[in-house]
Design a protein that fits this description.
Elements lengths: L3 H15 L4 E6 L12 H5 L3 E8 L2 E7 L4 E6 L5 E6 L8 E7 L3 E6 L6 E5 L23 H7 L7 H5 L10 H11 L12 H20 L39 E6 L2 E6 L5
Antiparallel strand pairs: 1-6, 2-3, 3-4, 4-8, 5-7, 6-7, 9-10
Helix pairs in contact: 1-6, 3-6, 5-6
Length: 274
């Protein structure tokens, strides 16, 4: 599934080409995504101007001004990607939606598994039910060790499971939780509430650093994800633990271990992480 770095990579790739552009059309080839594409969406968008591209967690937010202003909300689901292509570029069977702008550019949604979403929100984007209860942004200045220590005070679950709770912290999926916990030297099984202020500070720095390095590498491409330019991400080449069960830890030489926490594969070094 595309996680925060992949979505942020997409946002940064699209923004220079779309910000300030007028929408000339929306072509929906397959409306049956995770939720049906609203039937009136092409009419709502026609002639609107994209004034900003933002991100909230794993959601992309196109702020559209016009006679029916609001926010176009995209979610890439399990296998989706948004690419910039010429409007006359042939579509294949998994290319479900085209957003067309005045420059002649086309934003094309490719989603083989159709778990993505394209929704409309009139008024503030954060009022949409999918966004209203999301937690703190891990790249924001508000995400500090002090904040995290307070937030974990009554959390009894394993720290990796809590770290992936979007109601607490958005966008830290399975890959980046495993990598950040390794960078911070924290066992993923450790009870969240047991983390000291110092450990929380290290974890915040590790989460932020891991996400920023992944964004710089264009995210991770494990299945179908590509960036807005059609190129894959390369962060998987930097994984310290994820997907490396049985291999030697690059830090201490011990074997990377694999277990399941809350139904998710979890990779860690039993020697480096305490």
């Amino acid at each position: 599934m595309p996680e925060l770095p992949e979505v942020e990579t997409t946002r940064r790739g699209l923004a220079p080409h779309l910000t300030g552009r007028v929408i000339t059309g929306l072509l929906v080839r397959q409306p049956r995504l995770r939720w049906p594409v609203p039937t009136d969406l092409p009419h709502r968008l026609q002639g609107g101007r994209i004034v900003a591209l933002d991100r909230r967690g794993k959601y992309l937010l196109f702020h559209v001004e016009g006679r029916q202003g609001g926010f176009l909300i995209w979610h890439l689901g399990m296998s989706g990607s948004l690419r910039l292509v010429p409007a006359d570029f042939p579509a294949d069977r998994h290319d479900h939606v085209d957003l067309l702008v005045e420059s002649g550019a086309c934003v094309r949604l490719r989603d083989p598994r159709r778990f993505g979403a394209l929704l409309w929100q009139t008024g503030p984007a954060e009022a949409h039910p999918l966004l209203a209860h999301l937690g703190i942004e891990p790249l924001s200045p508000a995400f500090t060790g002090e904040w995290l220590h307070g937030a974990l005070r009554n959390r009894h679950g394993a720290i990796k499971t809590v770290l992936m709770d979007a109601g607490l912290i958005v966008g830290v999926g399975n890959i980046y939780a495993s990598e950040a916990l390794f960078a911070a030297g924290i066992d993923p099984r450790r009870p969240a509430r047991s983390l000291s202020p110092a450990r929380c500070g290290r974890l915040v720095a590790a989460v932020r650093g891991t996400l920023e390095r992944a964004i710089a590498a264009g995210g991770s491409s494990l299945r179908d994800f590509v960036g807005a330019d059609g190129h894959p991400g390369y962060f998987q080449q930097e994984y310290a633990v994820y997907g490396r069960a049985g291999e030697a830890c690059r830090r201490c030489g011990a074997r990377i271990r694999l277990l399941r926490l809350n139904g998710r594969s979890t990779f860690f070094c039993g020697r480096c992480q305490r």
